[in-house]
Write a structure and sequence with these properties.
Blueprint lengths: L1 H19 L8 H20 L3 H23 L4
């Protein structure tokens, strides 16, 4: 199951690094999907290990990413 947590962390790092290097905008759907997917994978792993601090962290990250994704999809393009 280490593959799951490593992949989740990689997705979060891609989103963060892409945003910091100005390759991704934090308002873009891709950025939000990377964050949501990475956090969800890490949340699933944390739940399986009863790691409550990480459940809180990743659960919050998932919720914020869902809101961000919904906003980015409602935004008119152009």
């Amino acid at each position: 199951m280490q593959h799951q947590s490593l992949f989740g962390a990689l997705l979060l790092l891609l989103a963060y690094g892409g945003q910091q290097l100005r390759l991704l905008r934090s308002e873009s759907p891709l950025y939000q999907v990377l964050n949501l997917t990475g956090a969800a994978l890490l949340l699933w792993r944390a739940l399986g290990e009863n790691s409550y601090g990480f459940v809180l962290l990743e659960g919050f990250w998932v919720l914020v990413s869902v809101v961000g994704l919904a906003r980015s999809l409602r935004r008119p393009s152009g």
